[in-house]
Specification:
By secondary structure, the chain is an alpha+beta fold. It contains 2 helices and 8 strands, in the order ββαβαβββββ. α1 runs parallel beside α2. The protein is globular and about 40 Å long.
């Protein structure tokens, strides 16, 4: 199963993400995001831990990706690996993350594109016969 693919969108960046589990789906969405931001092969060195909540699965995905964007641009932290625990049954849904990465200044280093935010535009998560699929549009 592929992790993600880019989808056509007129002005912004669209991705379709796949995962056998919710954790894999959210991890693959993070890889699509960080891979679109920058190509960097440095080994990880720092760890950040945080907890996010959302009323729906889509809210949780929106919060997750925007947290990673905030870490990148505000904290100058490039996320590289993701250890997630997701409770998708309760309300609010809950995501516990341990993210490993590196210090990376997007203003001093070359980035592929500036992604401003994940959006709610056409954001959807569906269960499939192979697991889960999500479509996400980023404002660039």
């Amino acid at each position: 199963m592929k992790k993600y693919e880019f989808i056509e969108h007129t002005a912004d960046l669209g991705i379709r993400v796949y995962g056998k589990t919710f954790e894999e789906l959210f991890t693959n969405a993070a890889f699509a995001l960080t891979g679109s931001l920058v190509k960097n092969r440095q080994k990880t060195g720092k760890t950040k831990k945080f907890v996010l909540e959302g009323q729906t699965s889509e809210d949780l995905m929106f919060n997750w990706l925007n947290e990673l964007i905030s870490l990148f641009f505000a904290d100058k932290f490039l996320s590289k690996t993701f250890n997630l625990k997701i409770d998708n049954k309760s309300i609010p849904r809950k995501l516990e993350a341990e993210v490993r990465g590196i210090d990376f200044d997007p203003y001093s280093n070359k980035i592929n594109m500036e992604i401003k935010a994940a959006t709610y535009h056409n954001l959807k998560i569906e269960e499939t016969k192979d697991g889960f699929k999500a479509e996400i549009i980023f404002d660039v």
